[in-house]
Amino acid sequence: MNEKEITKLFKQEAKKYGYKFKEYFAFKEIDDFFYVIYTFVGRDTPKGNLRIEVLVEFKPMIIDEIFWDITDLKENLKMPLSFRGNGAFTFPPKDIVRMKIYYSDDATEKELIEPIQKNIEKIEKIIQSLKISSLDDFLNYIENHKDKTYEWSDIDLCIGTNIALKKYDTALELCHYAKNNKKSGSSWVFDDKDFYDLAIKYIEKKYGA
């Protein structure tokens, strides 16, 4: 089966759990959180078996709205829900789990359906087991699942979430820390200012922090 056929199968099974599909990812909103499942079809080596790689991530809905307020991109509020999964000017979601499904080139649809079903069921159980229903829960999750590779993404998420919680001093401290320590600067630049410049100004102007 080719990549398009595999993606179609995954899409068909994800829909049973309330997911919508956009290009290479499935997504849905649960209790004001955005959940996304990215799928990639390929091989680990040129001659290796084919595999579906699945990455599950999430973030609070409100933090993208805060991002757009900070950067004066309020028109993005009108964008479809899927925009939060691949939009250039959105906060990155936090990873939950990554898994791989291996299969042979001559695998039939029947042989693939079962592992796809099992993995989507597993994903749903993992999401339910998180028991995350608040912004404080989300911050605790980040604290307990730190990843040095994605340190700056975690900090960006913490900035947005702390602003949403009105913990302005903490958000401001994180902005200054990132501004002074991230060698490459913010992932987002607007004219001559990066996101951290705008976030600092936003917090100081709006909340006098």
Q: What is the percentage of strand-forming residues?
A: 15-25%
Described by the principal axes of the CA atoms, the overall outline is elongated
Structural class: alpha+beta
Number of domains: 2
Helix content estimate? 40-55%
Q: Spell out the helices and strands N to C.
A: HEEEEHHEHHHHEEH
Strand order of the largest sheet: 1-2-3-4-5
Number of DSSP-assigned strands: 7
Largest sheet descriptor:
5 strands, antiparallel
Average pLDDT number? 91
Residue windows where pLDDT falls under 50 for at least 5 positions: none
Number of helices: 8
Distance between the termini: 57 Å
Oligomer: single chain
Rg over alpha carbons:
19 Å
Q: How is this structure best described in words?
A:
The protein is of the alpha+beta class and 209 residues long. Helix content is 48%, strand content 22%. It folds into two domains: 3-130, no CATH class; 136-207. The strands form two sheets. A five-stranded antiparallel β-sheet has the order 1-2-3-4-5. Strands 6-7 form a two-stranded antiparallel sheet. Helix 6 (151-164) runs antiparallel to helix 7 and helix 7 (168-181) runs antiparallel to helix 8 (195-207). The longest helix is centred in the middle third of the chain and has 22 residues, at 109-130. It is elongated. The model has no long low-confidence stretch (mean pLDDT 91).
